[in-house]
Amino acid sequence: MRDYSECFVGLDVAKARNAVAIAEPGRSGEVRYLGEIDSAPEAMQRLVRRLGKRHGRLHFCYEAGCTGYGLYRQIKALGHQCTVVAPSLIPTKAGERRKTNRIDATKLARLMRAGELSAVWVPDEAHEAMRDLVRTRHAAAKSLRAKRQHVTSFLLRHGRWYPRKAWGSTHARWLAAQSFAHTAQTAAFHDMVEAVRCAEQRLARLEALIGEFVPQWSLAPVAKALQAVRGVDFIAAVAFLAEVGDLSRFANPRQLMAYLGMTPSEASTGDDVKRGPITKTGNSQARRILVESAWTYRFAPKVGARKLVKVSAAPDKVQAIAWKAQMRLTQRYRMLARRGKKANVVAVAVARELAGFLWAIAREMTGDSGDHAQATNKR
After folding, report:
1. Buried b (16+ CB within 10 A) or exposed e, 12-21
2. How many CB atoms lie within 10 A of CB 199?
């Protein structure tokens, strides 16, 4: 049974000022708005200590957002509980038409007391640092694709295109030889090409940094093991774990699939069952990585020379799970394709089951393998 001697503090956090409300213990306890204070760490420390002296046990909560987890760690260091709340899962009344800092803070305090808020997973500082590096690399890759598209579009407007595989060494020499009737166009084109070269160098630097820091990472053994799975290379394994964290924190594969937003949506009532597309909740980056990896299963089961090095470095049980995944998912891909399913639908279905196999490998590497047969029985 809940100990109602604890007070609940709702914080509507912002860049400059935080709105504060407190809910007294018990169902009929008063919910008071305390006002706004400066968001600086020193001001928040004074607030926490003042409330702690007045009310004893406190449980703080605030919405996850751009302010990060610094406030969470500060409150925990001061000896109080703190929950970072998932904004998309906060209950909202259909008739609510007003939203202010005061209303938000009061609502958080009241809902936290009622146990109606869902917490997000908060990474430690080392994991957050690795995630920041991985996300920077993702932004660099996205920028590189955009810059390459600028070059391709420019050439197409002038009736030129490269007939073979682009962006290799031969393509680079072909680009360097291009010239146009007007000097201004030639200058603009070569500036675009230079921007592509700089973006490629930036991406290479970031990938080298990731390779440098991963060996000191707590999830490095799991990242190494995941590379035994088809379609999961070094960057994909590190990026997936950086976004999701320790996969063993999920009790079963279904929880991981739901966290990734890869389970079908549903709007059923009575005997009327209606299932729709996947929910797309949770971490979109991790979901994207899985879907990209799932496309490799359209080919026949195989372990190439480069992948063999990664597979051989994994423990025997991980190798067995990886091969079982390859056999199962290639068969699954072909079966769904024969049924006439759209290619994107097939890839997402395979990615959902791939998440289960990655969960099984992570549990094996953390020594809590459990019944990883569950990972292969999701239809």
Report:
1. bbeeebbbbb
2. 19
Residue 62 is given by DSSP the state E
Which tens digits make up the pLDDT trace of 275-324? 889 999 889 999 999 999 999 999 999 999 999 999 999 999 999 999 99
SS3 256: helix
What is the rounded CA–CA span in Å between residue 138 and residue 159?
32
Instruction: Report the alpha-carbon angle 296-171-307, nearest 5.
Output: 30
User: 119 has which bridge partners?
Assistant: 85
Which pTM value belongs to this model?
Answer: 0.89
Q: Which residue matches tokens 């999830």? A: 219
User: Tokens 């912002």 correspond to what residue?
Assistant: 14
State the amino acid at position 109 in one-letter form.
A
Q: Please count the other Cβ atoms lying within 10 Å of the Cβ belonging to residue 351.
A: 25
Burial class of residue 232 (count of CB atoms within 10 Å of its CB; 0-12, 13-18, 19+): buried
The superfamily (CATH) of domain 7-114 is: Ribonuclease H-like superfamily/Ribonuclease H (3.30.420.10)
Sequence spans of domains, the chain: 7-114, 125-216, 220-376
In the 8-state DSSP scheme, what is residue 300?
P
Angle ∠(65,67,71) on CA atoms, nearest 5: 110
Q: Which helix (DSSP H) or strand (DSSP E) does residue 81 occupy?
A: strand 81-85
DSSP assignments along 117-182, one per residue: --BPP---HHHHHHHHHHHHHHHHHHHHHHHHHHHHHHHHHTT---SS--SSHHHHHHHHT---SS
C-alpha 227/C-alpha 293 separation (Å) is 11
Pairwise CA distance, residues 215 & 228, whole Å? 17
Gap between the Cα atoms of 75 and 314, Å rounded: 40
Which residue carries 């999920």 as its tokens?
Answer: 250
Residues 6+ apart with CB under 8 A from 149: none
Given a cut of 50, the residues of the chain with pLDDT beneath it are 1-2, 371-379
